[in-house]
């Protein structure tokens, strides 16, 4: 009894299974990566908005008081990771 007719469907099923695994891996990779980049984009946009508010309130001038200006940028503090007024001023005021 010859089994030549059974080899083609078996090989096709194995290749099909490998293809499905590769496709699922790619889908998981791209959907996971996009969630992280979306979060980073949102954080950057919030930071830019807070820096613009910081700049518009006159906090980039030498006469600005740190306590008042630091209170204006809670999101900038989170994005930079510091409450140091000098560091926030350097980043927001392009110094």
Q: Could you explain how this protein is built, in words?
A:
The chain is mainly alpha-helical and 95 residues long. The protein has one domain. It is built from 4 helices and no strands. The chain has helices spanning 4-56, 66-71, 74-80, 85-92. Helix 1 crosses helix 3 (74-80). The protein is rod-shaped and about 95 Å long.
Unreliable segments of 5+ consecutive residues: none
Radius of gyration: 27 Å
Number of helices: 4
Major sheet size, sense and barrel closure: none
Distance between the termini: 84 Å
Tell me how many strands there are. 0
Summed over residues and divided by their number, the pLDDT gives a mean of 76
Whole-number total of structural domains: 1
Task: Label the structural class.
Answer: mainly alpha
Question: Percent range for helical residues?
Answer: over 70%
Strand content: under 5%
Q: Shape, please?
A: rod-shaped
Give helix and strand order, one letter per element, not per position: HHHH
Quickly describe the structure.
This protein has 95 residues and is mainly α. The protein has one domain.
Features:
single chain, 95 residues, mainly alpha, 4 helices, 0% strand, rod-shaped
Topology:
Blueprint: H1 4-56, H2 66-71, H3 74-80, H4 85-92
